[in-house]
Write a structure and sequence with these properties.
The complex is a heterotrimer. By secondary structure, chain A is mainly α. Chain A has twelve helices and two strands. In chain A, strands 1-2 form a two-stranded antiparallel sheet. The two termini of chain B are 15 Å apart. In chain C, strand 4, helix 5 and strand 5 form a beta-alpha-beta unit. The chains are: A mainly alpha, B mainly alpha, C alpha/beta. Chains A and B meet through helix 4, helix 10 and helix 12 of A and helix 5, helix 11 and helix 13 of B.
Chain lengths: 294, 334, 416
């Protein structure tokens, strides 16, 4: 190990961590507003990646240009899934039921993706995927920088929507307390549907970057969802700022451990950190004490 | 009534005992063994998660621990490849229950939805440890002593040991369900804060239930290891296992006594047969996911309760009574 | 009342499920009498991963088995019996592979069994098959653990995994001091196929005074290799040995090295560059230049049997010699070993076949000579090193081999 490698791993971690933060934000937003743990988030990321793949291979559409198609598509998929399946889940066991429903949805999507794209690994290709640029003496892949920029832009847009628009006010009210939000005249049902759409739409962007930096197939979704769940729990479920911070923090730590002790220990550390932190702080690092129980 | 009821159970048991005597094709008794292992695991899982409402998606921690216990003890005690290895099966259960205590001490401190995630995280910690540490043989896994029985004699003892584990798990689940302890678990599911307010020592109850539920799963893992004769970390610490047994229990009926047994019987044997006869994994995923989606959305209490309710409604109509609230609380009657 | 009805119905479902099991099964019992009635085909069973993690290799194995069966049938089959292959899929699952072989032997009454793909599945399969007294000849289960199991019925016609990198290591050690690299990095996936190869190579290379500057394993499920590759690059070793199992891993490391502007003088990967067109398509032909891979076989092999097989492969599936996956030849050689054993023993008795294969006989195959030791390892095959040079995939090691081309060293710079 040397210092240069360590700093390089921190840079890598922050750049890729931001993309995980983006995907985790969607997941935590869905939980916060709807009390739904969307286990299908992982397969939606892969679906987004495959959509970008299909567009670039069959129609020659650039990965970033393709987002103009894939983001709205996944937004619509999210709306439909919410209306058809998730809005039916009610009752005291809602959180548990939501895990099952979304898991079943992800199985179906996984099966379809396997049949359409086969189980062979693919990776998204573009000129900026192969090249790198020298920044402060470190060679950084363009795709990392572009992914970081995209995550920052989208997170900024999300922030603007949440804090500067009327709709955002409704979302924040629903995040804080659904009953009171309904009492002041907010249509919590519609807010939920749109939030689910937004939560899924961000996976189109996350999936594209994921697909350009990882070889993937449909079963990559299991690894992804495990990581995303760990991130949002650590950030305090329902906390958007927490998901952001935890996403960048966890991926950076993982990359650092990879350099210091070796890559086999980094995944182990990733999950171990959650176990250790939760045994000290059951509400996560950034979470408030859970007032709303499952 | 009571005698009559036990009669049905004995008949079911008799069918299971007769199965390998009638069916002598090893491919099908093998499916029988895996199905029984899943029945035991799903029942045990339900005994904690179904009764308490804490959904554990890390049961493979117990299964894998049982499997590695079998392999480590067999190798370090230089045991020969014969029936003596069966003595290590209960040991697998003991080790799994012991491991459940520290795991529970960490995982059960959080509330339900976080519990789901932390069990997944702990599962990965175990799986990755088995891959990374050398005493587990790393990615090459571990060999068990080869048992040189001819195939016609090989499956049958495994089948009956697996059946024994199912009977054990079912009896344990039934005893817990009828005990004061079981009522406390149900009280936690209905309202944990209130249960605590009423004097239930919720943490101790949860931890005990968690450790008890690990026992049969650990035995199942140990039996699997002995049967296959070779373990790899990714096959015994398998995330699909975690989800499968939860789905089987929920498919049959979460929190009911008979639901997990039936769910595992139907789902595991169907899956094995479908793969054996049609070998299409992707199609199976779609069908399984679709059927499951229908079950949870339209029969959220599981197939057993749904059928029972439909039956009750029909009977009520026939008797000319008004059907009010035919839905039966699964915890109340089973 | 309610409860009784519930139980009654539960029992109904139970009996339906059990009845399904009964009816679907056919009569049982092994039939390994060793003789087949005249005019009846010889049935050979195998379980391959046609979906799941190993499906690419599984499909190549299927091609190899089928190619052999077609060739042998054209020559009149085995002892006058037409060969029927029954190949089922196991979705890369250990439980499924056991059930599959039991079903093949008990329900389909296959006369012989061929191995599955990958060392992970070979062991459970070989153990299940051995309980019937059947031999398992296989071409893809060369991990050391397979031979440590104490099984007497398993025969691997391919190169034992652990010795794969030996010729490369010996070549490094043989270089004159001025040319010999000073530093080397080892990075390997946690996999029973890759991990055992590295220590064997490291021992030879270390003895030659080459310093190990990086030696780490990465989890098989890791998918973003950039941070790992960055760490390897910053160690700045002159040689890199990568323990990989597939093309995406090698491709990702090559891409990350290129992005880090790091170009080792020699770069060998345990699997990936041997995948012909699948490899060059993924990394670009220009960047493939100089990449090396160990293997026991390649499409351009001068072995007469191999040339014949390659010609037939191209006729059937198209492509060029370089596109033929080594899996195809490994599978084909399994058939050849069985052919020799059946002919020598004059029948299909597995006990006699096992005895014959343990007798120290040497069998000629597309992989070259095959001779089994008591563990079932093939002790005859030569390990080769292959290298991409321009658009050609050539044999470069061992240098003593007459077919060897001069090694391209140092490796050319990345071009894109």
């Amino acid at each position: 190990m040397n210092g240069t490698a360590l700093i390089h791993s921190i840079i890598d971690g922050i750049l890729t961590g931001s993309v995980y933060a983006l995907m985790a934000t969607g997941l935590t937003l869905i939980f916060g507003v709807m009390n739904i743990i969307n286990v299908a988030q992982g397969i939606f990321v892969i679906l987004g990646a495959y959509l970008s793949y299909a567009l670039s291979v069959h129609f020659g559409i650039d990965l970033f240009v393709g987002l103009a198609i894939t983001i709205p598509t996944l937004f619509l998929v999210g709306i439909v899934v919410e209306r058809v399946f998730l809005s039916r889940i009610k009752g005291p066991e809602k959180v548990v039921m939501s895990i099952l429903v979304t898991y079943a949805i992800s199985l179906v999507i996984e099966g379809i993706l396997n049949m359409v794209f086969s189980v062979n690994y693919v990776e998204l290709q573009a000129w900026y995927v192969d090249r790198s640029v020298r920044v402060f003496g470190y060679w950084l892949p363009y795709i990392y920088l572009l992914g970081f920029a995209l995550a920052v832009v989208l997170l900024g847009a999300l922030y603007f929507m949440l804090y500067r628009t009327r709709f955002g006010a409704s979302v924040r009210a629903s995040l804080a307390d659904q009953t009171s939000a309904a009492l002041v005249g907010i249509n919590v049902k519609n807010v939920s549907t749109i939030c689910f759409g937004i939560g899924i739409a961000v996976t189109a962007a996350g999936g594209m970057i994921y697909g350009a930096t990882n070889a993937f197939n449909a079963s990559s979704s299991y690894d992804l969802i495990s990581r995303l769940l760990v991130i949002i729990v650590l950030g305090g479920m329902g906390s958007i700022g927490g998901a952001l911070a935890a996403g960048v923090f966890m991926i950076t730590v993982e990359d650092m451990v990879s350099v210091i002790w070796g890559p086999v220990w980094s995944s182990l550390t990733f999950f171990l950190i959650l176990v250790i932190i939760l045994s000290v702080r059951p509400q996560g690092i950034f979470g408030k004490l859970e007032a709303r129980l499952a | 009534m009571s005698r009559f009821k036990h009669g049905w159970w004995l008949l079911a048991l008799a069918i299971f005992i007769a199965y390998p005597l009638v069916e002598t094709n090893p491919a099908y008794t093998t499916i029988g063994i895996f199905t029984l292992i899943f029945m035991a695991c799903a029942t045990s899982w339900n005994m904690f998660s179904g009764y308490s409402g804490y959904v554990n998606l890390g049961s493979a921690v117990f299964y894998g621990s049982g499997a590695y216990t079998m392999a480590l003890f067999a190798n370090h005690l230089h045991m020969a490849g014969n029936g003596d290895l069966f003595w290590l099966v209960p040991l697998g259960g003991v080790v799994a229950s012991i491991i459940a205590i520290p795991v529970g001490l960490v995982a059960l401190r959080v509330r339900r939805h976080t519990f789901v995630v932390i069990t997944i995280a702990i599962f990965f910690v175990f799986q990755l440890s088995a891959i990374n540490f050398s005493f587990t043989g790393g990615t090459s896994g571990m060999q068990l002593p080869f048992i040189p029985w001819f195939i016609t004699n090989y499956n049958v003892p495994f089948y009956y040991v697996a059946l024994g584990i199912v009977v054990f798990a079912a009896l344990l689940s039934a005893v817990v369900r009828r005990s004061r302890f079981g009522l406390q678990l149900l009280a936690i599911r209905d309202d944990e804060d209130r249960a605590a307010g009423l004097g239930v020592r919720v943490f101790a109850v949860k931890l005990t239930g968690f450790a008890l539920s690990a026992f049969a799963v650990g035995m199942g893992g140990a039996l699997y290891a002995m049967f296959i004769g070779q373990i790899y970390p990714q096959f015994v610490f398998d995330p699909i296992f975690d989800i499968s047994i939860a789905l089987m229990a929920i498919f049959g009926g979460l929190g009911t006594f008979i639901g997990p047994l039936l769910g595992a019987l139907v789902l595991e044997s169907t899956q094995q047969l479908l793969t054996l006869k049609y070998s299409n994994g992707s199609l199976y995923l779609i069908i399984f996911g679709g059927v499951f989606l229908i079950v949870i959305l339209f029969m959220p209490q599981g197939v057993v309760v749904a059928i029972r309710d439909a039956w009750a409604r029909r009977a009520a109509r026939r008797d000319g009574r008004v059907t009010v609230g035919a839905t039966v609380n699964p915890g109340a009657t089973s | 009342m309610n409860r009784r009805k519930e139980l009654f119905r539960a029992l109904g479902v139970t009996s339906v499920a059990l009845a399904t099991l009964f009816t679907l099964s056919t009569t049982s019992g092994a039939s390994s009498s060793g003789t087949i009635a005249k005019g009846q085909p010889v049935l050979i069973g195998a379980s391959l991963s046609l979906s799941g993690d190993f499906s690419a290799d599984g499909t190549a194995f299927q091609q190899g088995y089928e190619l052999w069966a077609a060739d042998q049938n054209a020559k009149g089959g085995l002892l006058g019996h037409k060969i029927d292959l029954k190949i089922v899929s196991d979705a890369s699952s250990a439980t499924q592979v056991v059930t599959n072989y039991q079903d093949l032997i008990s329900s389909d009454h296959v006369n012989l069994t061929f191995g599955p793909f990958s060392s992970l599945l070979t062991l459970p399969a070989a153990k299940a098959v051995s309980r019937y007294g059947y031999a398992m000849v296989e071409g893809a289960g060369g991990a050391p653990s397979v031979f440590q199991a104490g099984l007497t019925n398993v025969f691997d016609s391919a190169l034992p995994v652990a010795s794969g990198l030996v010729p490369f290591a010996q070549w490094i050690a043989s270089l004159p001091k001025s040319q010999r690299p000073k530093t080397i990095a080892y990075v390997t996936s946690t996999d029973p196929f890759t991990e055992p190869q590295i220590p064997v190579a490291e021992k030879i290379i270390k003895a030659a005074g080459v310093k190990t500057v990086y030696y780490k394993t990465f989890p098989a499920e890791a998918t973003d290799y950039t941070p790992i590759a960055d760490a390897v690059a910053s160690a700045n070793a002159q040689v890199v040995i990568l323990g990989s199992v597939d093309v995406p891993t090698v491709s990702a490391f090559m891409q990350a090295f290129e992005q880090a502007h790091y170009n080792p003088k020699a770069f060998i990967a345990t699997a990936g560059p041997d995948q012909g067109a699948a490899f060059t398509k993924a990394v670009g032909l220009a960047n493939a230049d100089g990449m090396m891979v160990p293997n026991a076989w390649f499409g351009g092999s001068k072995n007469a049997q191999s040339e014949k097989m390659v010609a037939e492969y191209i006729k059937k599936y198209g492509g060029t010699a370089a596109d033929v996956n080594a899996d195809v030849a490994e599978a084909y050689s399994v058939g050849q070993v069985i052919t020799a054993a059946v002919k020598a023993t004059g029948g299909f008795d597995n006990t006699k076949i096992i005895k014959y294969l343990h007798s120290g006989v040497t069998i000629q195959s597309v992989l070259g000579p095959v001779k089994f030791n008591s563990l079932g390892e093939n002790i005859k095959p030569t390990a080769f090193t292959f290298q991409w040079q321009g658009s050609n995939f050539v044999e470069v090691n061992p240098a003593t081999d007459p077919g060897a081309t001069k090694i391209l060293y140092p490796k050319p710079a990345w071009k894109n």
